[in-house]
Amino acid sequence: MPCRDLYGYPLTTGPDAAAAYVRGLRDLLCLRTGAAENLAVSITLDPTFALGHAGLALLGHEMCVNVDIAARLQDAHLHAGRATERERSHVRAVTAHVTGDSRALVAHLEAYPRDALLLSTAVPTIAFAGVTEVPEEAWDIVERAVPAYGDDWWFGGMLAFVRQEQRRFDEAMELSCRSLAQEPGAGHSAHARAHAHYETGDHEAGLAWMDLWVTGDGAGVESTSHFSWHAALHELSLGDLDAVRRRYDAQLRPERGLGCRALVDTGSLLFRWALTPGASDVPTLDRVAAIAGRDTLERPATPFLAMHAAVTLLAIGDAAGLDRLHAWSRRHEHPTQRAVVAPLAAALALLHAGAASTAADELARLAAATWRLGGSDAQREILEETRIAALIRADRLEEARLLLDRRLDRRRSPRDERWRVSCAPTRSG
């Protein structure tokens, strides 16, 4: 009997290597620590196991795991000839995706919808940046897979994340809670629930639930910093800056070995914290920038990382870095790097140079295209908040208030209410 993965697809390897691969896949689907380590064990036990090599290359590309991506892809191709057609298709899809073309991955999922690793890769979530620039296209990939998964706990979390992006928050909450009832440590489901709480302004309940989950059923989660970021975002929205500081000190300091999540989670929190009315003694992003490194800041692998790199360069006052990011992204093969990242870097360079009004206008022109950067609405809000700050700096207070009113129409936020008051025109006489 052939070895099989979690969803029944044959694996061309021996039982021990297959067991290690399945453990790694389950860890990844739960967002637990150990995914990369178990995949590495699988190819140690069987150096000819193509999917183990391809999986490690994918994690290196998407999650900053310290592996030799080129070598792993080379070995995956070397050994794929002895594998099944599904495994060969998987290797081809990973290779194309890593080099910037995800069409093969999308086509692979049409034929093999239960390839959970690549389905997870296709959708922008906590683990992966996604493969489409149009949210509806990512939603369609998940919707087409519904018949293949039924009531599966992991897929329920993926569908819940789609539902919250569609602003169907009641359904997202129901799906995520049902999934967590089956698998209490289901990281994707917890993530979808976290977004549903935030997007509906349910900050107190969302914060209380998140703190309980991270220290209980989710204690083994790999991306602890991102869940801590979600908790801190509730605290920031409530205007509880003392709680934000405690959260940062205990869970989000960049020295905690967060890897590229130091840029995405810690960096974005510090940036948004510093913009908050009444904030003082906010730690700088210098350490975040040092951990990210020049390559990530000036030549980011994905548009999503590029967004965080740009705001980090602005925060540390690195005009030369913004110029280099702008020049590099203008020449990039990826259309989003050229069409969105390059003008974003240019707009933030203007803001750094003191041209706040022009920067605000440039950010307004980009607003309709920022969804192309990937990530979630909650993450991309950092650019909306930068635009508000630029408008206030340019003394265009009425426009800043209108933006804040729109945000408050979406959800309750004491922080935004205070921000709105802070940009009210002063009266003289």
Spatial ordering of strands, largest sheet: 1-2
What is the β-strand count?
2
How big a fraction of the residues is strand? under 5%
The run of helices and strands is: EEHHHHHHHHHHHHHHHHHHHHHHHH
Helical amount = 55-70%
- Name the shape in a single word: globular
Mean pLDDT: 93
Count up the helices.
Answer: 24
Q: Distance between termini?
A: 87 Å
Structural class: mainly alpha
Major sheet, described briefly? Answer: 2 strands, antiparallel
Unreliable residue stretches? none
Cα gyration radius (Å):
22 Å
Report on the structure:
The chain is mostly helical and 429 residues long. The chain is built from 24 helices and two strands. It has helices spanning 15-30, 35-45, 50-63, 69-80, 85-98, 103-111, 116-122, 135-144, 146-149, 153-165, 169-182, 187-199, 203-215, 224-237, 241-252, 261-275, 286-298, 303-315, 319-330, 335-352, 356-366, 377-393, 397-410, 414-422, and strands at 3-4, 10-11. Strands 1-2 form a two-stranded antiparallel ribbon.
Q: Care to give the gist of this entry?
A:
The chain is mostly helical.
List the helices and strands and how they pair.
Layout: E1 3-4, E2 10-11, H1 15-30, H2 35-45, H3 50-63, H4 69-80, H5 85-98, H6 103-111, H7 116-122, H8 135-144, H9 146-149, H10 153-165, H11 169-182, H12 187-199, H13 203-215, H14 224-237, H15 241-252, H16 261-275, H17 286-298, H18 303-315, H19 319-330, H20 335-352, H21 356-366, H22 377-393, H23 397-410, H24 414-422
Antiparallel strand pairs: 1-2
Helix pairs in contact: 1-2, 2-3, 3-4, 3-5, 4-5, 5-6, 8-10, 10-11, 10-12, 11-12, 12-13, 12-14, 13-14, 14-15, 14-16, 15-16, 16-17, 16-18, 16-22, 17-18, 18-19, 18-20, 19-20, 20-21, 21-22, 22-23, 23-24
